[in-house]
């Protein structure tokens, strides 16, 4: 026999959805702010994922290892890109 389901508390669901929306909105705002000063090619481990040269790339000499991003997050990184 199928289990009886509990009725949905619409107010609780509405509050939960509003909280979830706020969390995602905060994440989006933070991402937009960070994107103004952090190089978009720098990953969470401070490794460069760019497929082009940049003067802020520091290669360790380890084969197949991504370069370390030596750029400062306080500088405008865009001038460092090689064209």
Note the main attributes of this structure.
83 residues; mainly alpha; 30% helix; elongated
Question: Care to describe what's here?
Answer:
The structure is a single chain. With 83 residues, this protein is mainly α. The protein has one domain. 30% of the residues lie in helices and 5% in strands. The chain has one helix at residues 10-34, and strands at residues 57-58, 68-69.
Structural class: mainly alpha
Q: Which runs of at least 5 residues are low in confidence (pLDDT < 50)? A: none
Strand content: under 5%
Our Rg estimate from Cα atoms comes to 22 Å
Number of helices: 1
The tally of strands reads 2
Shape: elongated
Order of helices and strands: HEE
Q: What would the average pLDDT be, to the nearest integer?
A: 84
Sheet of most strands? 2 strands, antiparallel
Number of domains: 1
Q: What separation lies between the terminal Cα atoms?
A: 68 Å
Binned, the helix content reads 25-40%
Task: List the topology elements.
Elements: H1 10-34, E1 57-58, E2 68-69
Antiparallel strand pairs: 1-2
Q: What's this entry about, in short?
A:
It is built from one helix and two strands.
């Amino acid at each position: 026999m199928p289990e009886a389901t509990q009725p949905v508390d619409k107010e609780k669901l509405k509050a939960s959805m509003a909280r979830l929306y706020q969390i995602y909105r905060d994440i989006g705002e933070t991402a937009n702010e960070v994107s103004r000063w952090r190089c978009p090619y720098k990953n969470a481990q401070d490794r460069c994922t760019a497929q082009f040269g940049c003067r802020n790339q520091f290669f360790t000499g380890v084969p197949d290892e991504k370069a370390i991003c030596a750029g400062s997050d306080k500088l405008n990184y865009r001038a460092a890109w090689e064209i």
